[in-house]
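Q: Given only this backbone (546 positions), what sequence would you predict?
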């Protein structure tokens, strides 16, 4: 470790600088360094953001509206009985879909980030929009395991192309004095779309599932209009570099070799390893929580306490909170969407607070809060406690996720911004791929009301052949019929008799381990930053007396 941190004194550069000397500390606002830079105040930083930043925020908001409209409803759609318009598949099938989706979406940017740097952000954003439209259309046209899976693969590919171009633009359109607020505000625009998407989904899926997918295809096409007003920062610089490469003046390695060289950087490599645990938790929330809330959390009493007995008939509140058509309960997507709603309204304020923290400290605190929330999910299913845990989780996400993008943007070489921001998908990818298997698997083993109901039917003496003939998603209804119990009473009995919270305890523990690792990582990078600062300070000239 100390061999990489001695800088000029040992004749070596710190690995994050890749051979670039630190000139006059961090006076250059675009300096590549692990050292934190004092940030502007909230309103000064917001005022300093350029129009292209806001165009990118608009495109990301539209893209997330369509994406989360589909993504947060996927588990419900895949496991819903065919009699309700779903696919009637198992949690294992859902895990396979999520696994394929995760692999494509998160590892494609590792290559396409470099492509965006070399061939243009606007061009790759345009191509991604075409693929995403096609993905949504395939999901709506082919309601089967393979039809939906192929649609998910195409959508994931388009998303993988989209991310580096947008985030690379954000990185080049900001500097180190406004980066915390910029990434916080950008994350807020992300969650405006992320909040509106599930609201649209709850309404449309109660009419017909295919309406949802076709609507998402129409929504994402709006990005063509925003793209017409987009101007790529430093385009002339990129074109000049391409011309030098073409003429042979600059020799350029293959993207694969160049990416691997950058990933060998120990500061970047350990970031990828440690932050994978954070994304493991986040995707557990997004993938498993809708199933858990559907099966075990009764929101009708909470709705009654807020709106009075009988719920509400107000169309705005039913849409905003993701409620059932009769206004008596909040649907699973509505509960999950509290996360995006909170981020939509207050992320800029949290970003202002996190600007005062070191990047690694903010990420460690956020990871701890998210872990605490998941452990709470495993302990209780009372609706108000679930809401409190979602609030805690949301603050954890706001402290961690935007800061991670800012951190990589700050340590990335100027000409490799999209490549490095493509690398943000690596921890996301490792965490999501692992969760795609373990999340649905553990839920199916310990928490699925459908699978628990089938076991109870077997324990009651029902023949295995008869149980197997029950359509997917309808075992709980059959158990009600056999026992003669109400849905609420039977749910309470099954919850008390089974280890429903196991999936959350496992995921929360992974988060705590990641948090501890992030604390150690922060101490290590702080030492590196201090060495960089010492090595960049000119030594005072010796006087004759010395």
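A: Predicted residues:
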């Amino acid at each position: 470790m100390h061999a990489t941190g001695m800088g000029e004194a040992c004749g070596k550069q710190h690995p994050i600088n890749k051979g670039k000397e630190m000139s006059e500390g961090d006076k250059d606002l675009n300096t590549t360094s692990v050292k934190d830079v004092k940030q502007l105040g909230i309103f000064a930083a917001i005022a300093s953001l350029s129009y292209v930043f806001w165009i990118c925020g608009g495109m990301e908001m539209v893209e997330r509206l369509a994406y989360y409209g589909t993504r947060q409803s996927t588990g419900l759609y895949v496991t819903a009985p065919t009699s309700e318009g779903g696919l009637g598949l198992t949690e294992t099938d859902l895990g396979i879909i999520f696994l394929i989706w995760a692999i494509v979406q998160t590892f494609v940017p590792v290559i396409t980030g470099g492509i965006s740097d070399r061939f243009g952000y606007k061009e790759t954003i345009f191509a991604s929009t075409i693929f995403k439209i096609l993905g949504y259309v395939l999901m709506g046209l082919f309601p089967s395991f393979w039809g939906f899976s192929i649609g998910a693969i195409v959508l994931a590919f388009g998303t993988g192309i989209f991310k580096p171009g947008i985030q690379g633009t954000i990185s080049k359109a900001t500097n180190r004095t406004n980066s915390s607020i910029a990434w916080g505000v950008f994350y807020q625009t992300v969650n405006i779309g992320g909040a509106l998407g599930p609201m649209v989904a709850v309404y449309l899926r109660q009419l017909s599932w295919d309406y949802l997918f076709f609507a998402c295809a129409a929504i994402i096409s709006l990005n063509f209009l925003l793209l017409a007003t987009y101007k790529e920062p430093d385009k002339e610089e990129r074109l000049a570099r391409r011309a030098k490469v073409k003429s042979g003046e600059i020799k350029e390695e293959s993207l694969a070799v160049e990416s691997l060289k950058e990933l060998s950087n120990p500061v970047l490599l350990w970031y990828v390893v440690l932050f994978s645990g954070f994304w493991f938790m986040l995707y557990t929330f997004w993938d498993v929580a809708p199933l858990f809330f559907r099966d075990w959390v009764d929101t009708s009493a909470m709705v009654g306490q807020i709106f009075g007995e009988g719920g509400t008939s107000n169309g705005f509140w039913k849409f905003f909170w993701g409620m059932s058509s009769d206004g008596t309960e909040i649907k699973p997507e509505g509960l999950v969407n509290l996360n995006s709603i909170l981020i939509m309204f207050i992320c800029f304020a949290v970003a202002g607070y996190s600007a005062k923290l070191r990047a690694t400290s903010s990420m460690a605190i956020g990871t701890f809060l998210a872990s605490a929330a998941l452990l709470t999910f495993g302990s209780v299913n009372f609706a108000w406690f679930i809401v409190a845990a979602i609030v805690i989780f949301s603050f954890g996400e706001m402290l961690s996720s935007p800061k991670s993008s800012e951190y990589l943007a700050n340590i990335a070489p100027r000409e490799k911004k999209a490549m490095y921001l493509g690398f943000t998908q690596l921890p996301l990818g490792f965490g999501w791929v692992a969760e795609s298997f373990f999340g649905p698997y553990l839920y199916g083993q310990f928490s699925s009301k459908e699978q628990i109901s089938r076991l109870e039917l077997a324990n009651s003496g029902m023949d295995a052949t008869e149980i197997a003939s029950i359509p997917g998603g309808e075992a709980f209804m059959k158990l009600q019929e056999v026992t003669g119990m109400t849905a609420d009473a039977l749910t309470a009995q099954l919850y008390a008799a089974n280890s429903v919270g196991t999936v959350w305890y496992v995921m929360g523990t992974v988060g705590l381990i990641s948090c501890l690792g992030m604390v150690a990582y922060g101490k290590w990078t702080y030492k590196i930053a201090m060495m960089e600062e010492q090595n960049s300070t000119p030594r005072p000239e010796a006087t004759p007396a010395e």
